[in-house]
Amino acid sequence: xxxPLLLGKNAVKREILDYLICPECLPEENSLRLGNFRCxxxxxxxxxxxxxxxxxxxxxxxxxxxxxKGKSKKPRSIGPQPSDLRSPTSVYESPEVLSAxxxxxxxxxxxxxxxxxxxxxxxxxIAPVSGAALDTGCATGRFSFEMSAKCDLVIxxxxxxxxxxTARRIMRERKLAFRIRExxxxxxxxxxxxxxxxxxxxxxxxxxxxxxxxxxxxSFACVASLNLIDKTPRPLxxxxxxxxxxxxxxxxxxxxxPFSWSEQVCESEKWLGGTPYGRFAGAGIDNVARLLxxxxxxxxxxxxxxxxxxxxxxxxxxxxxxELIRSLFLKAER
Length: 334
Ligand SMILES: [Zn+2]
Prior knowledge:
Blueprint: H1 2-15, E1 32-40, E2 43-51, E3 57-61, E4 64-65, H2 95-106, H3 118-123, E5 132-136, H4 142-147, E6 153-158, H5 161-173, E7 175-183, E8 186-193, E9 203-207, E10 222-226, H6 235-245, E11 252-257, H7 284-292, E12 304-318, E13 321-333
Parallel strand pairs: 5-6, 5-10, 6-9, 10-11
Antiparallel strand pairs: 1-2, 2-3, 3-4, 7-8, 11-13, 12-13
Zinc ion (ZN) binds at residues 22, 24-25, 30, 51, 53-54, 56.
């Protein structure tokens, strides 16, 4: 199975070019022109995606396209991280956090009894649909691979270069071996393979900002934001961007979050819940549902929330230390 998939992967890389716009120019949607590129086996390995309007160039390096808006290099990636791994800078680029996310995403594939079934449960909310899916805050890619069994093309985006390069490696090789911490300095190696029904030829991963997505409006049949809202410094912008990227009709949206608001990530004035006063007083999940029910110039037509629920999601720090997180979700359609 791996050979045709590897051949197909090369087509995907070019296919995403049709979706791309300059994030710096938003809300204007200006095309990007591919220049100075070098291909290997049909895949663009190096190149520049240039905006003819603002002049900004986004680099493709070692097959990874990077669309960060450029001012801030602070990583803004998904989900809660193990508390004793937190550091002021680049937490999502550290090997320990990468290992923790790989465990969370893939430990069921090597039979670890401690992991939850969060990704299968989230994927179960999405009906198969023709068209492309967008996985914002994809981390090491599990939900993107799940979506490859339901959609024609999946683009995963994350602000972490470490996550995206690892997700692309899994996409290419369909397997990975990595180390997890057992206790102190003792580690063991774990390995997994992607499920046969996950078509990695349909999946691509890029580095981008979830609050300024480099995609044309109305591009995606399905958009997901899993454990990202409380990890972004501008959650309202992120939700509007996720909605903008989705089609105006026949579209599905899955938003899930534990709403662990933190001043370290986002000023409390910008939280979408968790405060007793202001526009977003009360519970984040209710405020997100209300936002989705309103038409918005940028976000597009209103959504109909069709399901609400919760998924247990777990992060592993070491053999005897886990964090258990309840992620509240909304499934919406329009
Ligand atoms: Zn531009």
